[in-house]
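Lecture notes, structural biology module. Today: joint structure prediction for complexes of two components.
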Amino acid sequence: MSLVGVGAGRRLTVAAVGAIVAVALVGALFPDSIAGQLATTGTFERALRLSAPITLAAIGGLYAEKSGVFNIGLEGFLIFGAFTAAAVSWAVAGGEAISQADLWVSVLSAVAFCAALAAVFATFAIRYEANQIVAGLAIWFLGLGFAPFAAIVLWGRVNSPPLNSIDEVVVPLLADVPVVGPVFFAASPLVMLSGLVVLAAYVVLYYTRFGYWVQAAGENPEALDTAGVDVNRVRYAAVILSGALCGLGGASLSVGFSEGFVGRGVTMVNGRGWIAITAYLFGNYNPAGTFAASLLFGGVDALQIQLQTVGISIPNRLAGLFPYVAVLVVLVLVGNTRMPSAAGDPYRTEDD
Amino acid sequence: MSRAETVRRNARWALAQLVDASVAERLVIALAALVASLLLGGAIVLAAGHNPVTVVLFLIYGAIGTPGQVAFTLRKATMLVLAGVAVAIAFRANVFNIGVQGQLVVGGFATAMTILWLAPYLPAGGLAGLVLVACGLVAGVGGGAAYAALPGAMKAYADANEVVTTIMLNFIATGVLFVLVDGPLKDPEAAAPKTLNFPDYAGFPSLLGVSDSFSLVGLAIALAAVVVVYVVMTTTRFGYDLRTTGYQAAASAYSGVDPERTVVSTMVASGMVAGLAGAVYVVMVVGYFQDPGVFPTFGFDGIAVSLLAANNPLGAVPAGLLFGALSSGRQFVDVNLDVPKELIDGIVGLIVLFVATPELFRHLGRRAGLGGGEGPAGEEGEAVADGGEPVAGPADGDESDGEPGPRTADGDEPPDPDGPTRSDGGEPA
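The predicted structure, tokenised, for the full assembly:
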């Protein structure tokens, strides 16, 4: 059954990417057609930006699960990341205008804070053998409660005041390449960073010793243990990495692509952590596939914005539901992915 | 091995740990989780510049200080018991229905539409009210069941992870119903997105006269649901199948249980109770259907209720009372001490985290040399749990509802002047 699932997943990923490319081609050839109006460079830039937080969280979740720990709390970590970045940039500036340096300090703080939080989560999940699904849900609840709580303590309301956002950078030469240049090389550094993270995640997972350890910790922890590697240390590392990446993803939401934190309702993260889980399932635990899936979800989101710009009128709220519906469709079609066989099982060494 | 199977295995393993524990140990772990969460919450309150002791006293007073506040607590508890039972049915079978919130909203919507559509065909009066409410409740149960059947079937026949699908369906229900309530179904006179009001006679009789938005009938429905679910789970074939697939999916499949059908029927049963909760909410509390984005998050708090009750429907009653008390107390603390009520949402998260980790308390217990996995501070826990004792009595206080507040978590209760009243003793620490 798993073979069927994997095959269906691959085919679907290829089909999805193919659809995006087809729309883009039609758009480029016939700029006046509806496809042309939908597939502007702006749409692609937006799709990349919207997919960046999903990509980062999904890569993190992928590593954690590959190592054998479900991190279903991605959504919560993203919320903490978004809030921490906004709060630190505000605090560091101390009432002055927020500089770019302040913003980068805030991004690093968000990464550090979420990594620390993930270390606590890892301790609960690995050392104290918590039910990982429920503990992950708890992280989400903690984010939904404490982030707006802290926002009220700092700013008197659940949203931050307007702050500042990280400037786009233009890479000389590369930015002049037609089509690809303006999309990838005249963009937010966080978009570029998430691209680099995908590349690094791919290389590390399949071509380095640590990557093999991560895979073995999830597939065959006994063998890894026999080889003299501490299974649980590998798992701690993978879970902490997932927290750090969520910190980066959350920061990209609050200080990367918008100017401040929104803590109202389900907060500005708005389900992206849950979408990220679907993204790495859809990507079949492969960083490249995960990136493609995140791009698909970001693209669906960008498309609904572009639909409105073009004037095809669908109520805002309904169009905003596209990504969630896409997630359902993907899960029903892909469903059966082959997950790491020891995922979710606590590991105890013999000599314990 | 599919993902769903492994998820189930993971949960079954954790559940088996809980089953091994004696009832007493489970109680101690629940109390220890409560105490640990409140202590951590207290530290955070302290860091935010408030006096935690004052906050706790205000919480208790806000929950049970006046008859009006007791009614408020009981109203919250009614909803939380129902939501908790809905979650417990699914979790008991190791189906992670995180979509109780969405099912509750859809159930409430079905109830509201049924009452509004039927009302013109019946002569106004008490009997018509009874018929309307009865039809409304049935529609609510059906709506919740249908909306839960969807992720149930997706899980059973397409192996789609129910945690993710139910959360997506929560977003979708909230979004779609908002568009309806803000558009074609909107009350033209109202500024906020809401339907027309139900006729006056279509509601629960207040009985105590304490509050328009709490009725003993609602509480009785919740308690009846607890009893029915408990009996079904312990004495019927379906309940047996549900519990055994929860503990030992492979063994129960071998003994002739159809696992796919059990998953779907588990979700349907869970959704029925969730839909009933939504129905009780619109009939008892608001009297119309509003923007679901400002529905209180009973569906999520129900997860905490169920976990604290070790997924036992009977346990949902004390757990629901406790969280009901926290929920009405936090309103009071927010208004009178300027401690943001979101604090309690965070503490609920801590409780869930600790309840998911019984091993932590066993470890601490062994360290303290108590043996048998005793928690560190059981007595304090009991003192806190006492805050949830129901004390019924008449009063003049009342809570207004329905103003879309700024926050999803508690949109139905903006800090209102008539409910939790501002006291003079509030000392900002």
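Point to remember: Chain A touches chain B through 59 residues (CB under 8 Å).
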